[in-house]
Amino acid sequence: MTGQRIKITTPMSDEAIISLRAGDVVSLCGVIYTARDAAHAKLMEMVSRGEDMPFHFEGAAVYYAGPTPPRPGRPIGSAGPTTSGRMDAYSPALIKMGLKVMIGKGFRNKPVHEAIIEYGGLYLAATGGAGALIARAVKSSEVIAFPELGTEAIRRLEVEDFPAIVAIDSRGADIYARE
Predict the structure, then answer these.
(1) Residues 6 or more apart from 127 whose CB is under 8 A from it?
(2) If I label 155, which of 59, 68, 102, 166 is the partner at 20 to 30 A Cα–Cα?
């Protein structure tokens, strides 16, 4: 693990993804999308019906968060990560469809780990309990799918210097690995 700090622009290229190593500290700039388990279930329903996804997965980053309503003058409220394991049932299928980057907190299961390696993706960890701090990196927020889910709707966020750590890199190195 190198621990180097790297500024990354989304959507991420394959070259950027393979250049990162578990333990690298990244600062994301560009667009990321929020989606939690209720949104993931709806995405899978769309897949089963053959419908187009609400955003292009290739190089996209999905942040497992359900932001709180914003204070006046802010684009978003607190936006801390949720436990990523809640999305593990859905993630391998979405990774196979082209999803490359996931952001959350905590351990991922073996099928997700294997899909990240097979399809060349990344899992980034955001700091739990730092939702108000993370929200400062959000410059704009727009609901793009499933508004009926409230805080769990899919949002398109424009971010600047969104802090994260590479938790699982494209080769399978994992900061959560238990030896």
Answers:
(1) 80, 81, 105, 133, 134, 163
(2) 166
Task: Dump the DSSP string for 79-146.
Answer: -PPPBGGGGTTTHHHHHHTTB-EEEEBS---HHHHHHHHHHT-EEEEPPTT-HHHHHTTEEEEEEEE-
Rg (Cα) of the chain, in Å, rounded?
Answer: 15
| CA-based torsion, 41, 47, 50, 51: positive or negative | positive
Whether this prediction's pTM lies above 0.90 is answered by yes
Please give the domain boundaries of the chain with CATH numbers for all domains. 5-168 (3.20.130.10)
Dist. CA 112–CA 142, nearest whole Å: 28
Report pLDDT digits (tens) over 81-123. 999 999 999 999 999 999 999 999 999 999 999 999 999 999 9
Measured CA to CA, the distance from residue 143 to residue 153 in angstroms comes to: 6
Residues 6+ apart with CB under 8 A from 105: 64, 81, 82, 83, 84, 125, 126, 127, 128
pLDDT in the model for residue 3: 52
